[in-house]
Amino acid sequence: MIHSVEGGHVGPLAGIRMMVTRxxxxxxxxxxxxxxxxxxxxxxxxxxxxxxxDSSRLDEALSxxxxxxxxxxxxxxxxxFFLDRMRQLGIGIDRLTGHLAAVGPKTAxxxxxxxxxxxxxxxxxxxxxxxxxxxxxxxxxxxxxxxxADIARKTLPEELRRMGLDVTEVDVYHTVIxxxxxxxxxxxxxxxxxxxxxxxxxxxxxxxxxxxxxxxxKQLLEGVSIACIGPITADTARAHGLQADVVAREYTVExxxxxxxxxxxxxxxxxxI
Length: 273
Prior knowledge:
The longest helix has 13 residues, at 24-36. The protein folds into 2 domains: 18-46 and 178-246, Rossmann fold; 50-175, Rossmann fold. By secondary structure, it is α/β, with parallel strands linked by helices. Strand 9 (196-199), helix 8 and strand 10 (225-228) form a beta-alpha-beta unit. Helix 8 (202-212) packs parallel to helix 9. The protein has helices spanning 24-36, 56-63, 76-88, 105-112, 127-134, 155-162, 182-190, 202-212, 231-239, 253-265, and strands at residues 3-5, 17-20, 40-43, 47-50, 70-73, 99-102, 143-149, 166-177, 196-199, 225-228, 246-247. It holds the Pfam family HEM4. Residues 29-258 form the Tetrapyrrole biosynthesis uroporphyrinogen III synthase domain. InterPro entries: 4pyrrol_syn_uPrphyn_synt_sf, 4pyrrol_synth_uPrphyn_synth, UROS/Hem4.
């Protein structure tokens, strides 16, 4: 069932009814911040993160973890699954002797929870930002480990290889669709009970369209605004024929909410304020 969170109807997003498509484990942050701004959230978790069925490639990389010059983390989940597997194999984090890079402050904060420090945190929290931050620190021939999701973009490893680095990619978790709440989500959209849908990754867009296809697809979104956490997610939305009405400038939950406040306070549907 989709859970609703009633906001206090006081604040810059008072009365806004937002569908949140993040995984169950990650939705709470966005929901609580939206509620604090006066909005109402309807959680429609579309993603589940699960360990890979075959972890042999990951395990082989972990067995020689000390041989890598860099380990680059591109998500909070990547950190969690990576360190979980290290613990399961009895490999201590003291074996992580290479430089660590994190795609953004939340990924870095997850590392810090385990006593690990990210030396590089880009200002743009995407692969391109990480490449820009790293380019002056990397040397051809250095060995890089990329613990990622199975559906991660290929931009980072491809560019690193072009720079002459020895890149090992390993799946540390798989992202799968969780569409059991799709009938109720479609009904809410059909009945005009949702003002905006928040997409926090390209996979949330793709899985949403897959989940809604049996119930009318894009036809359900008439009068519904689309909010994207960044330009890559917005590009995926457009590829599915959706209009990205709100695109965060800072690719975080906070940035997304700031963009929503600007949208409804400016050129958006101001009657919600």
